Amino acid sequence: MARHYGLDWLRIGAFALLILYHIGMVFVPWGFHAQTAHPIDWVAIPMMAINPWRLALLFVVSGYASRALLDKGTGLGAFARSRSARLLVPLLFGMIVVVPLQPWIELTTQRGYTGSFWRFLAHDYFGFAKVSGLLLPATQHLWFVLYLWLYTMLLAITAVLLGGRSLQRAFDAVFGGIRLWLLPMLWLVLVSAWLFVGARETHALWGDWVAHATYLPAFLFGFGFAGSQTGFAATARWWRWAAVVALLSYALVVGIEYAWPVNVPTPFPYGHIFSAARGAQGWSAIIALIGFADRHWNHNHPWHATLTEAVFPFYLIHQTVIVGVEGALLPYGLHPAAEFAILVVSTVAACWAFYLIGREIRWLRPLIGLRQRGPIHPPMRATLATEEA
């Protein structure tokens, strides 16, 4: 497979939006590990522009990347071992070193816990029990890594049993033409509006059926799409129409959210309409974004290698920074605008520091999701002239 830079840039952009989304979670009245003292209802409106597709897109792109890695490798066994090392090692490192601050902030700011962070680490976090309703130790935002590893192993087993070529032929037959857009969209509408109406993801792995029904098909789709010439042709033809449907669906979602804000019961049938519109918005946005990336972003750039490598370390550390900084800001009662500005600056700075330091320490690289030998990076003080060269 030739490298598709458009999908790389889409992955980078999706993770950047995810970080901004998690900062937004501090301000919406949906419940988060650390929240401002004065939640703002209207923040939910822009959040809903990306909420239905942000994670599904990441699983699609991860499936695409898995196909590229498998095609470059030496077989399914080596692929499974490589992916396990690249995913499980950072997951364990994150749960032991990166994550603990998050549940401690939640316990102390929302659940009445009075112990210090060091007491929490020594006596509670590794107790494999619930503390004030929180099961510890926790994966927190790293549930994504755990689910991705599980889906990757299921994919490897399926490929062994059924064979890669037969799977690709089946994908091309099922998702030919406009069906590439319509069939997954109808599935997401079915999942959100009929099979799991009102259900919320738990990220607890077992029993999280609404998440698995959404993200496992998205991951498998990305894997099949990576080897499908008909899939890229269909996306090129339909992505603009998908963008229109995504925008119209989002308008419907906003209208219902505005009429019945959070914590206000939504009467029948508007709750079902809301869920169906979210499903249509989610997959239509994914097709539109893939088509746009294929058309406009499929080119290299001097910063491509650095940003592609930085994505995983950024993801690993970002939520701990957000929760930790907000926990430190809460006693000062700052205006939400000041809180937001501080969170954005501190999160971006901490993510870059975590990555730039970690990439230079050989034994630390695998712990933060990097290969032992990384790419050649552009100069740290790149100017417009060096970027254009």
Quick synopsis:
With 389 residues, this protein is mostly helical.
Distance between the termini: 27 Å
Structural class: mainly alpha
Largest sheet: 2 strands, antiparallel
Query: What is the average of the pLDDT values?
Result: 92
Shape: globular
- Biggest sheet: strand arrangement: 1-2
Question: Which stretches are low in confidence, meaning pLDDT under 50 for 5 or more residues running?
Answer: 380-389
Oligomer: single chain
Using only C-alpha atoms, the radius of gyration works out to 21 Å
Order of helices and strands: HHHHHHEEHHHHHHHHH
The proportion of residues forming helix, as a percent range, comes to 55-70%
Q: How much of the polypeptide forms β-strand, as a percent range?
A: under 5%
Number of strands: 2
Number of helices: 15
Overall description:
This protein has 389 residues and is mainly alpha-helical. A two-stranded antiparallel ribbon has the order 1-2. The chain has a domain at 48-97 and 139-298. Helices cover 67% and strands 2% of the residues. It has helices at residues 5-24, 44-47, 54-72, 76-98, 101-110, 117-125, 143-162, 164-174, 179-195, 209-225, 229-259, 270-296, 304-329, 336-358, 384-388; strands at residues 129-131, 134-136. The protein is globular. Residues 380-389 have low confidence and may be disordered. The chain is built from 15 helices and two strands. The longest helix has 31 residues, at 229-259. Helix 1 (5-24) crosses helix 14, helix 5 (101-110) packs parallel to helix 13 (304-329) and helix 7 crosses helix 10.
